[in-house]
Structures are given as structure tokens and as C-alpha cells.
Amino acid sequence: MMLQPDSSHISTEQLAAEVKGIYAGLVMVEAKCINIDAAQAADPRSPLGAEQWQALIALHRTLLYEHHDFLMATQHPSATPALRGLAIRYSMPARMWKHGIHAFLEVLRHRRPQSQDYMLAFIYLAYQMMALLFETVPSFTDTWIECLGDLARYRMAVEEEKEAHATWGGVAARWYTMASDRHPAIGRLYHHLGIL
């Protein structure tokens, strides 16, 4: 017996209202992340305590969850073509990477070694979310594959143990190879492989 995700019947109007509500919340959290990341990037020497780091991770986790909810709602079986097109129209995968993951990873990277443990925790969180989206939102498979490669590359870069460094380099290479096999004409993917 094959289990299917719960896709209870929902009217088009209900789904549209749900998507609108999710998007409104997402935009608010995204704006907070953008402002906080910009402020932290502008002053990388100001110390942050454990509670502040945990709050920043929680904020970015919330943004990732909002993106997940938005993508799941817009890809729902009851979604109209217009609803399904919203993720592309509003550049949701790119926004999730830029504001939900990459900007914060750069804040963490510039504050190493003090931020090392928080950076590792956030990389794992983001990696799990990308892996979930890879499995559940196939319409953006190429994006998820490249993001997984990028996250594995970040994980490799912060690893101090030689064996684990090589392991994460191999993980990144596998994702980038998968991406380049799917799109052999995209040079950026070969550049990523070359960096490894």
C-alpha cells in the first residue's frame, strides 16, 4: 500500500485565501531577515550572545517554513494554474535561497570562529529543508539540487577534520554533477565543481 500525502478537498477560494495569508506572513518575516542580515553584515565585529544567535536561527527557520508552506499550498492538487504559477511569478525559490539561507550563512561565515556551532546547526537545518523540498516540490528540482550542492559546499568549507571535509566535498560534487547532467550547457555548475 502506497501512502499519499493528505490532500483533503479544499475549494479554490479557500486555497487562494490560504496562499494569500501565507504570503503576507512570509513577506513580513522576509523583511525582518533582510533588515537584520544587512545590519549584521554592516557590523561584523559586534558580538552576539547565544540567545541572539538562537533568535536569528529561529527567525530564518520561520522564513524557511513559510516558504515551505507557500510552495506546498501553491502546488496543492486543487490549485489553479494561476496559483501554481505564483512561485515562479514571485521568484520564491530564489528569494528563499537569498533571504532565507545565503545572506544569513554569510553573516555566520564572517563571524567565525565564534559562530561555528551556530553555522553548523543552520547548515543542517537548511539542508534538511532543501532535501524535503527536493522530495515534495518537483517543479523546482533543478533549484533544489543546486542549493543542496551549495549547502554541502558551505559545510565542507567550515569542516576542520580532513575526512569530514572530503566527505562533504563529495556530497557537493554529487549534487553539482547531478545538476550538470540535467543541464550540461550551464557553465556555472562546472565552475562549482571546479571549486571543489
Automatic annotation (TrEMBL):
GO terms under cellular component: telomerase holoenzyme complex
Protein's GO biological process: nuclear-transcribed mRNA catabolic process, nonsense-mediated decay
GO molecular function: telomerase RNA binding; telomeric DNA binding
Protein name stated in the entry: DNA/RNA-binding domain-containing protein
